[in-house]
Automatic annotation (TrEMBL), chain B:
Keyword Metal-binding: yes
PANTHER family per UniProt: ANAEROBIC DIMETHYL SULFOXIDE REDUCTASE CHAIN B-RELATED, PROTEIN NRFC
Pfam families, A to Z: Fer4_11
Record-given protein name: 4Fe-4S ferredoxin
Keywords linked to the UniProt accession: 4Fe-4S, Electron transport, Iron, Iron-sulfur, Metal-binding, Repeat, Transport
Domain 4Fe-4S ferredoxin-type per the UniProt entry, residue ranges: 2-31, 83-112
Molecular-function annotations in GO: 4 iron, 4 sulfur cluster binding; metal ion binding
Keyword Metal-binding: yes
Record InterPro entries: 4Fe4S_Fe-S-bd, 4Fe4S_Fe_S_CS, ET_IronSulfur_Cluster-Binding
Automatic annotation (TrEMBL), chain C:
Domain spans labelled 4Fe-4S ferredoxin-type: 9-38, 39-68
The family this protein is said to belong to: Belongs to the glutamate synthase family.
Catalysed reactions, as listed in the record: 2 L-glutamate + NADP(+) = L-glutamine + 2-oxoglutarate + NADPH + H(+)
Name assigned to this protein: glutamate synthase (NADPH)
Key words, A-Z: 4Fe-4S, Amino-acid biosynthesis, Glutamate biosynthesis, Iron, Iron-sulfur, Metal-binding, Oxidoreductase
Listed GO MF terms: 4 iron, 4 sulfur cluster binding; glutamate synthase (NADPH) activity; metal ion binding
Organism (species): Candidatus Aquicultor secundus
Gene3D superfamilies in alphabetical order: 3.30.70.20, Aldolase class I
Family annotation (PANTHER family): ARCHAEAL-TYPE GLUTAMATE SYNTHASE [NADPH]
Top-level EC class as recorded in UniProt: oxidoreductase
Residue positions binding [4Fe-4S] cluster 1: 18, 21, 24, 58
Keyword flag Magnesium: no
Ligand binding ([4Fe-4S] cluster 2): 28, 48, 51, 54
Amino acid sequence: MEGRKYRGNYRRNISGCGLAGMMSEDGRLMSGEPIIRAMEVLHDRANGLGGGFAAYGIYPHKKEFYALHIMYDDIRAKEATDVLLDERFEIDSEETIPTRKTPGIGKSPLLWRYFVTPKADRCTTDTCEEDFVIDAVMHINEKVEGAFIFSSGKNMGAFKAVGFPEDVGRFYRLDEYEAYTWIGHGRFPTNTPGWWGGAHPFTILDWALVHNGEISSYGINKRYLEMFGYKCTMLTDTEVGAYAFDLLLRKHKLPVEIACKVLSAPFWDEIDRMKEKGDPMADVYEKLRMVYGSILLNGPFAFIVGHTNGMIGLADRVKLRPMIAARKDDMLYIASEEAAIREISPELDRVWNPKAGEPVIGRLKNPVNNNSKAKVKAKAKVKETVA
Amino acid sequence: MKRVYAKEEVCIGCRLCEVYCRTEHSKSKNIIKAHKKEFPRPMARVLVEELRPVSFALQCRHCDEPACVEACITGALTKDESGRVVHDEAKCVGCWTCVLVCPHGAPQRDLERRKIAKCDLCPDRETPACVEMCPNEALVYEER
Amino acid sequence: MKTYQLPEVIIERDKDKCINCGVCVRQCAFEAHKFDEEGEVYSEDEKCVACQRCVSLCPTNALYIRDNKPFVKDNANWTAETQKYIWKQAETGGVLLTGMGNPKPYPIYWDHILLNASQVTNPSIDPLREPMELRTYLGSKPDNVQIKMVNGEPVIETKIAPNLVMKTPILFSAMSFGAISHNATVALAMASKELGTYWNTGEGGLSKSLYQYGPNTIVQVASGRFGVHSEYLDAAAAIEIKIGQGAKPGIGGHLPGEKVGRRVSETRMIPVGSDALSPAPHHDIYSIEDLSQLIYSLKEATEYTKPISVKISAVHNVAAIASGIARAGADIIAIDGFRGGTGAAPTMIRDNVGIPIELAIAAVDTRLREEGIRNKASVIAAGGFRNSADVIKAIALGADAVYIGTAALVAMGCHVCQKCYTGKCNWGIATQDPHLEKRLNPEIAAQRLYNLVRGWSHEVSEMLGGMGINAIESLRGNRLHLRGIALSKEEMDVLGIQVAGSPMA
């Protein structure tokens, strides 16, 4: 893969980009066409060196399986990866990800998706299963030359490439999918030509994160996350955002609003003023900053994070990147510009500009429990079909 | 009225107050000339009393009821409206009566000019020279 | 016997300028200046220690202290200094003694580390217009917090150990009363309170008159246990167990008897005039579990209300030692590098034992993170910090905060003449002679300390803003904002930084 020469060493790719996200809190499924149009409006925020999407609810018939989206430089990388996958997972099925030839998208790596579940003897508890999958994904990404797993959640998937986002969306035929949450991103990297895996969103399990900005605290955020076992293998600072959400929300089980206040923390001045007024939250925020200082995200950023049960928009503590939010009926929209939202929905009930550090939170009215164990049907592997 | 007060706990006994008082009351106001080229030598109006480790700078207290003014036989010592005890050199005859009566030992005998020398709170300056130049801020100029 | 040592300096007096005021005569405790029978001042070069007191106070700038390096034939090995040391020992048969920190030209790694700045892709932040947060918490912190919702409001259930909170990541290092004068300790205490930071009593105990500054005071429990009693512990904000100090790793403190007057005797609880020798190890700490026992004894004695710090010298296996200390229950680990200062130390030990704080901090921070225990204890770096750039680089390498010792003394007037052990400090800092001590006006000294730390803090804010960071915890341990220059690969590996110009961030 072009540009990915320095394995294991971070090579900063600065993001000055465009983001959009749309979610139906009722859980209604929508095609990918609107989000592609929204990203087209944000065309000038990208420079054609990276675009991507994440979608939730797209594999309803395989929703108990982890959907691994993998890109391979060549068939050898696939073979090496298949061996590792076989060791760890029961593979229900695998197939190439359908694409259409699109001007603007150059030579693509091999694109495959697998529906898998951890082998029965490997895991007993639910959290063990999730850590197992993360571990497997990080292991393969680090160790297998030429292979990169870019999505690994249940009933969701990330789709990304080098190119303008609208072209990427059409390349992956996203108009043919139906999802209740769509997130899109267009990239403006300033360093080297992007590599397919370097486009956003970054994922871990069912977390997908798109980012506009540059995290100047990356150096310490990375080392902090490494203490908890996360490996930062991708070549951009955005991945600490994704891992941070996973750590705070899934592992440490902090409420969403609290996790957002950890990443985009209030200033000491504000906390002191709250203390003077006798506000009990002052003590909460002080303790959070004491404990989680190393995961405070400094530097300009706007994130949109998708997960199975919702979507989160969060900007940095001094709002150095744009982020607009809007609602209409059961829909929540978040984007870098209002124009992108209006392209999808010209009528809106409410539009607002979130304050620095103030999160935008969308929640599914009927949350999904992702913990049902998958049952693998015997002999459903595409590979084994012999004419 | 503002007076000069000594902070004995931080007086280091360097006697720079004497050096600068002498310079301020010289003809040239130049420290080297004042000490080496002017004759008779200008006199310092402040004296550092010392018994180590205690030391402090002592000068005229500009008393509310100055004994020296009462005792002065020529009227050279007077108390002006601001409260300062002023010494008129022209009238002074060097009888040393003020030296005898001052309870603080403030007037100094100028043997060469045959007059006394006494602190005048540096009328030409905003802050007296000794206060301004003390390296350890051991002198303050304030109202008490 | 006749000495072969030549005067280290020559005192030059400009006769045209000298007004024979005698300030130099009165100010020199080493009696290098005297009045002759005619009332003129003359000088004795061999007594001068080059402390510059007379030069500073001379009202006509008539004095100049000139270096008198004796001419010995060009010899890189047998330098004039080397020969002088041998003569000294030949004449006295004693251990060479000296003061202050290691002056030898070992590499200063701070001068080989460069900082980053943001441009274009990431805006730098102006500290005069935007909030810039230097607030620092020192102490043990949990890895995560448990939150419970009570009446719809989040409440943190996890108990967090006591922490010190400071407005700036700079504190005053341990300097004992005895090594420095009482006025100097008063100045440090007053400045700490104004600045919202802390000072450290060192092993000299704490004078009762300073108990009022208790909330800003860290007290030390050193191997001699000088001045350690329950009120001492109760008065303090934190307690530091001193295992070692950077200037003399492996040996204990040394206060010559000349400096033990009545006050020192009272505060340290030892007889007047006796040498105060702290033993090398604590005689009840012979292993890590003994240290753990002492840490918990102190915690029990203070009912777990104060953080307990452990101070060690930077030596070869400092990372492993720090790891052990974190696991032994310490809330703070203070590491003193080989440039740390001292009131008295054997010259050979000061100049040859220990490692630089730059490498030590990097090694300790890396090791604690590798073991997943970095949150258990905060790390304070000490040992020769000269300016705010050194401070910010130390934080980027991984320190939570920085202790300054020598810099604080220099701010108060010290000219690093290295004669602290004589007790004749002309600046009133490293002396117990009441006549000399008066020269350090505590209010002026406190103002100078306040100015210094405030100036450095503002500079740190400027540099942070330049990197696009507005809270110091985002720089702590963030080595990607550092680059090395003219360093070997191994040195950069230990420091965990890349070479300047490297495309890899």
